[in-house]
Amino acid sequence: MRRGSERRGPAEGGPVEGGALRTAGAPISWGVCEVPGWGRQLDRSRVLTEMAELGLNATELGPAGFLPPSPSRCRSLLGQYGLRAVGGFVPVVLHDPHHDPLPEVRATMRAFRDGDVDVVVLAAATGRDGYDAKPVLDARGWKTLLGNLERILRNAREFGRAVTLHPHVGTMVESAEEVERVLDGSAVPLCLDTGHLLIGGTDPGDLARRAAGRVAHVHLKDVDAGLAERVRAGGLTYTQAVREGIYRPLGQGDVDVAGIVAVLRAAGYPGWYVLEQDVILGSRDADPARNVRESLAYLEGL
Question: What is the DSSP string of 114-149?
């Protein structure tokens, strides 16, 4: 982890080879979130217009209801803004022995296939609203979770979609120990979210170096490590930390974004880099596009 001018640049961290990164946006960078009471929710016309104005040509879907539920209508709407959908965040309960997530996930994979969306980004949801608390998972719960991941992977072949698991604060796979348990106990590819990993206690750069072959999707975030430590210590809830600005434009926090990108590109990672700086919007004059603009400028510098 490095901050500001102390961060290792491409010259120190090794060459970043190849062409431009495959960069996509995400509605959460505009404060659009599935959590009730998260903050002011911008309408999709503003969000998609600003994505296009920033030069983005791809995005994740955002929460249910943000875009049309019909795959064909969704694809058509995004096309009006010069955008395509490359992935979608799908929180699903995977650990409950009395709940079968497969019908829900199969329906999602079918919709993604019909809408030409590349990646199903699963999160091991707790079954509760929000990401401020989670139950402790027992041995039976872990067996169920890992077994469901394998079932989902087998079914994904039918739909031709990539399926990844997103370690995420406030889900059943958050901490470094939980991430390792998934790596050791399943074959599921990962969505490498540089921010959620750091907040949960995993060094995202170390994970990228050790398990680059398991990375099938990337969410690029930069994080204030001091606020992250307060979340881990229980001094702040996750929602409070987002409100206080735990996520920073790329290059302005404590994640070695340049080093992680260099590692992944050297390993031949061919996928998308989704820009995500989660925000909670309050005032009507908020300008969430500014952070995305700064992050894009940082990436262009790589």
Answer: HHT--EEEEEE--SSSSSS--PPP-HHHHHHHHHHH
Q: Is residue 282 classed as helix, strand or coil in its secondary structure?
A: coil
Please spell the DSSP secondary structure of 209-256, one letter per residue: HH-GGGEEEEEE-EE-HHHHHHHHTTSS-HHHHHHTT-EE-TTSSSS-
Residue indicated by tokens 């894009």: 296
pLDDT tens digits, residue range 221-256? 999 999 999 999 999 999 999 999 999 999 999 999
Mean pLDDT of all residues in 139-163? 97
User: Number of H helices and number of E strands within the chain?
Assistant: 12, 10
Find, among 62, 2, 10, the residue nearest to 276 by Cα. Answer: 62
CA–CA distance, 158 with 22 (Å, rounded to integer):
26
- Which two tokens mark 141? 């719960």
Per-residue model confidence as pLDDT tens digits over 185-218: 999 999 999 999 999 999 999 999 999 999 999 9
| Calpha distance 175→185 (Å, rounded) | 15
Closest alpha carbon to 186 in 218, 158, 153: 153
Q: DSSP assignment, residue 66? A: T
Q: What is the C-alpha radius of gyration for the chain, rounded to an integer number of angstroms?
A: 18
The whole-angstrom separation of Cα 171 and Cα 203 is: 18
Whether 193 and 166 have beta carbons less than 8 Å apart is answered as yes
Q: Where are the alpha helices (DSSP H) in 38-138?
A: 44-53, 71-80, 102-115
